[in-house]
Design brief:
CATH superfamily of the largest domain: P-loop containing nucleotide triphosphate hydrolases
Largest sheet: 8 strands, mixed
Oligomer: single chain
Bound molecules: adenosine-5'-diphosphate, magnesium ion
Helix content: 40-55%
Amino acid sequence: MSFADLGLSDELLRAVTESGYTEPTPIQRQAIPPVLMMKDLIGIAQTGTGKTASFVLPMIDILAHGRSRARMPRSLILEPTRELAAQVAENFEKYGKYHKLSMALLIGGVSMGDQIKALEKGVDVLIATPGRLMDLFQRGNILLTGCGLLVIDEADRMLDMGFIPDIEEICTKLPKNRQTLLFSATMPPPIKKLADKFLTNPKSIEVSRPASANLQITQRLVEVDARKKREVLRELIDAEDVNTAIIFCNRKTTVRELAKSLKRHGYKAGEIHGDMDQPARLAELELFKKGEVNLLVASDVAARGLDVKGVSHVFNFDAPWHPDDYVHRIGRTGRAGATGKAFTFITKDDVEAIENIEKLIGQKIERVAKQVRAEAAEPAAKAPRARKPAKTEQPQKAETPAREERAAGDRKKKPSPEPRAARQAPRDEEADDGWNGPMPGFLSVKLCS
Ligand code: ADP
Ligand code: MG
């Protein structure tokens, strides 16, 4: 089946062809026709399967007819993070180049300017993060009564970040007879509840089992001594012929220190985490996309949906606390049919986390032999080669297992049947991610022509 079979307009097909896509992904094949028919839809598909285009494409054709009015956006797309919102905006620009749609991006951390003016003039598409949208709504800068189409994207991530109450409130401000689309990689009960409450007779599409990890990704667990993580990471990077990699850590401090350490060892490493302001994050991403930096050390804020092409490897320097994060992290590689490799470092404290991950993805992850070597190398540290790097690793003391354990104690002790409860409160990584911060910001992007 080709894009032309989906009922999209000729202008749109031209833009799609120019973007290099030859055929729709399974979620696009199944979602685009019902969305064009103005049906409500729940789309569940793993990360990297092309969910964005499955709503952006039909939206462009739906919005091609009709006009926007002052302060009354005609459609609204909710995204959990600024990066994802910016990516969706890029998609609108790319596919909407032959349409005259106007768009505004409403995200925190970007300076305010003539963007309110754009909103005043009226926009066809408003892309926003829930917190920022609520701010503006409360100031009376925006009316949602003319918004006939709502997209809740990355719904499971919204849940993780504690945005569900905001979304519920936003839903009540929109007209009842709107079209609502919800996309997610997984479908935990609170998302199901949200869908039941705010979608009308939705068509449900599930492309693969929820949270199944991408089969194109070779996954390995690497057992390491917590004090040897950096050393093992460098060994792996060297041995693995890494083209580009994202290296995930659970904490911002770890991100910063690891990036510094890698640079000290001569690697082209960059970092992205919640302490950086938006321009700094985008600048770092840009360096990574351009290849000036090929190892991006990241926190989970950067994990979801970031569309960076050609990532050959994902390293989980820390095993993620939440199993869903695992799926999202490793989803950064093996995008849209490409193959990728994901290595997850595990220490003796991660046993439960790994069990939960394996339960979620429904498969056992192979443990690599390398771990044995790395561990074996330790008692035999008389060998000068093994000892030397250990000495240069003084700063790593900041992350001795004892401290990690204490800091993570709260979360780890949560009984596993209710890990979701812990997620309602934003994690420390996200708490200062700018959503509740004082800096109002919003940026609009006009589509071409
Ligand atoms: P998701 O939201 O499901 O995680 P995205 O929409 O971000 O995934 O898309 C993942 C990647 O796949 C992006 O790089 C996107 O450009 C690419 N992609 C999307 N649709 C197609 C297609 N039909 N053919 C080839 N690549 C595609
Ligand atoms: Mg997405």
